[in-house]
Structure formats: C-alpha cells, structure tokens
Amino acid sequence: MEAAHRAFLSTDIDCSGAFLSSVCDAIYVHVPFCRHRCHYCDFFTIAGRDDARSAYVDTLLREAACTIPALPMVGPTLFVGGGTPTYLLPDDLDRLLQGVRATMAVPPVEWTVEANPETVDAVIAYVLCGAGVTRVSLGMQSAQPKLLQALERQHDPDSVPRAVSHLRSAGLSSVSLDLIFGIPGQTLAQVEADLDAALALGPVHLSVYGLVYEPGTPLRRRRDKGLVLQVDESVEADMYTCVQERLATAGFEHYEISNWALPGHRCRHNEVYWTNGNWWPLGPAAAGHVRGLRWRNVPRLGMWMETEGFAPVTDVEQVDLDGQLGEALMLGLRLLEGVPRTLVDAACATPLRGGVRHAAVERHIAGGLIVWRGDRLALTSAGLLLADVVIGDLL
Predict the structure, then answer these.
(1) Most CB contacts within 10 A, which of 41, 89, 177, 270?
(2) Quick check: 198 and 164 in contact, CB under 8 A?
(3) 77 beta partners
(4) Residue ranges of the alpha helices (H) in 173-277?
(5) Is beta strand 259-261 parallel, antiparallel or unpaired with respect to 279-282?
(6) Strands 287-290, 253-256: parallel, antiparallel or unpaired by DSSP?
(7) Whole-angstrom Cα distance, residue 7 to residue 13?
(8) Residue 55 to residues 132, 181, 236, 280: CA-CA distances in angstroms?
(9) Side-chain-side CA neighbours of residue 267 (13 Å)
(10) Mean pLDDT to the nearest integer, 115-137
C-alpha cells in the first residue's frame, strides 16, 4: 500500500482543507477470528482457523511497524474490531495491543476494543486494562435466549453481566453495549425488556441497530426462502421510537442515528468516520481513507499473511473533490447535530452533482425530513426513520 502511504504523507492530493483533516485521526485494527459466524454478519470473519491466530498477530505487528510510525498523528483514536478481538489467546491479545500501541508516537485519546461477552473472563479483562485500553464495546444484542438463537448468537445472556463485572474489576469502567431490534419474532415488549436489561448494567454508551438482512448472509437467504419472517416496517419504526424515548429518559444523548451516550462518552473513533476524517487500516479486509483516497486491505487471510509490511490492497478509489463533499454531507447527516451550512452550500454548488444535491435538500426540507436548525442542516424526527432514503438521495 505504498502508493496510499506516500499520498498521505505528500501534498500531491488536493484535500482543500475545509472538510478533511491533514493528519491521521484514527487507526483501525481488524481481527477476523470468531468462534462462530453469526447468521446476520457480513463482516470479514473467519471461524475454524484458531491455528492461525498467533501468526496473524506476528503479521499484524509487522504491518503496524511498517506504516504507523510515519503517519502524522495528533490525538488519534485506536479501535480494535472484528471478528472478535477477545477470541485471541490472552498472550496474543496482549502482544497485539502492546505492539500496536508501541508504534504510535502519541498515545490514543480513546482506545476501544470490541468483545463478545462469552470471551471476556478475568484474564482477558486484565490484559485489556493492562495494555491501556480505555473503552470496551460488548456485543450484547439481546438479553433473551430465543432472540439470540434467531440471530445464531451463541452466547448465554448471563455472560453479559459477567463480562461487565470482569471489566470493572480490572479497572475498565467505560463499557458500551450493542443491541439489535427488529429481530424475527421480536415484540415491542421484548425491545423494552432488552433496554431495561442493558441499562441495569450501567453502560456509558449504547449502540442500538435495526436488523439488516445483508446480501450474502445466511439470514438473508433464510428470509428470501420464506423461512424467516421480517418484522413489519411500521413495527420496527415503533421499536426505534421506543429506543429513543427510553434512552432519553435514562439520560442518554442521542448523537448519531444508532448511537446514544451519557455526557462525555461519545465514541470519538466513530465520529472520525462520520466527519469524513482520515484513518489508517491494519489487518485483512480493513478499510482506510486518506485525503479522499479509499482502499481496503485484501480480504484473504492467507494472502495478507504472506506480506512483510504494506498489505496488498483492493478496491482502491481516488474520490474527487465533488465526491468528497458529497460523502461529507451524507456522513455528517448521520449525526443528530447535522452538518454546517458551509458544507451544505459547498456540496450543492459543485458543477457535477451540486444541482442534484440542492434539489434533494429542498425536496426533503419541504417533506419535513430535514430542517435548518440555525446554521446546521439536520434530520428531523421523521427523517431519522427514513434516514437511508434522505442520505441516499444526497449522496
């Protein structure tokens, strides 16, 4: 990936500085291993290759040592996702965390590791804390066995409070929980019960997603064959409204379409994505973005592990300024605070697609889906329910 690396460090690419930062805002590390592949997941994950975990860490650390020290960073975030990072053996997880951190000239201002509840015991919790991780995101999904079974999740609901207890005993208090609504067979009362169970654990952040039947996943194939009944759109909208109201009552700030946080606990790493910042990827299938240049490390473990430094890449795309402005507008609208008028004006004034964006903005303002709040354009309550339509039109 030397071309992308040189592009980032050079001034050859016009990033026009108004909407894209000039430093590396974040590092993303992808750990693909899982004990079991959930039927709704479309991320690059690998089950049944436990023998490759240690060699994966060796390769990852070589990749990090080759790339990270040269990146200009000021207050970066670090996110280790997957897959299941905590499915690595404790010694390998410790090597990965300590090794990646050692390549960074400045410490991360936020360091998140994703975890499945059943993989977090006292040893893993202390490895995370000892390495300096500041935040753990637990894939709770539901507190009800039948709903977990519908998702082909294999963890016991009781493993979630156990994992949270282990993390807190180790000294990690910043815990985020993931929930899913719109699960086949789920009722509104069950959504409320899941929220109550999650809130009882005292998280500082919640990500609550409507179930998506991604193409190519087993769950999508089952739905298409009529083996799974998708929740009606009107019921799913009621579920989303329920989430908003329940979390507002609990004191959580709704700051992004699917994310809520107690004051001071937003996910800063994900905000880099939503503000179209620059991030560098490590690991197979990890995607990067640098000054309008987008790419993905090759999604093949064997090919990726054969390299000694820069990862082989695929899907390389240099987004022009018009495209960068459109992406910044689209991503920024995911935030409840919206996007500044200066960005909207710039995105709607480009010669190629500006007119289409301007017409879409006017149409959705008239339809009550977006609104000007002072100098920022934001989704309305109705717009949040149809965010994919609005954002798709603007992109």
Answers:
(1) 177
(2) no
(3) 26, 110
(4) 188-199, 218-224, 233-249, 268-274
(5) unpaired
(6) unpaired
(7) 7
(8) 23, 37, 43, 21
(9) 28
(10) 97
Task: Evaluate if pTM is beyond 0.90.
Answer: yes
Q: Compute the average pLDDT of residues 279-295.
A: 94
Burial class (CB in 10 A: 0-12, 13-18, 19+), 310: middle
* Residue 18 pLDDT grade (very low, low, confident, very high; cuts 50, 70, 90): very low
Distance CA 226, CA 222 (A): 6
H or E element, residue 323: helix 321-332
How far apart CA 2 and CA 297 sit, in angstroms, is 12
Per-residue b or e along 118-147, where b marks 16 or more CB atoms closer than 10 Å to that residue's CB: bbbeeebbbbbbebebbbbbbbbbbbbeeb
Q: Is 368 exposed, middle or buried (0-12, 13-18, 19+ CB in 10 A)?
A: exposed
Residue type, 332: G
What letter represents residue 181's amino acid?
F
d(CA 382, CA 391): 13
Q: Say if CB 115 and CB 137 are below 8 A apart.
A: yes
Supply the Cα-derived Rg of the chain in whole angstroms: 21
In the chain, the domains with their CATH numbers are: 2-274 (3.80.30.20), 335-395 (no CATH)
